[in-house]
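ok so I'm stuck.
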Amino acid sequence: MGETREDEVNSKGMGVGIAIGAALGVGIGVAMDDLAVGVAIGMGTGVAIGAGLSRR
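replied:
not stuck anymore, here's the structure
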């Protein structure tokens, strides 16, 4: 059971990180006039944030 709970925390942290990254990415994309590049940067950032949140 301990593993399941840890997995839930990890997936939640990753989901939150990716959501933050996607929002950042749209903002970056609009600022750069290139939505695809902005979202790509944002998703990379989101995965990094998610990994950090998952480790807590």
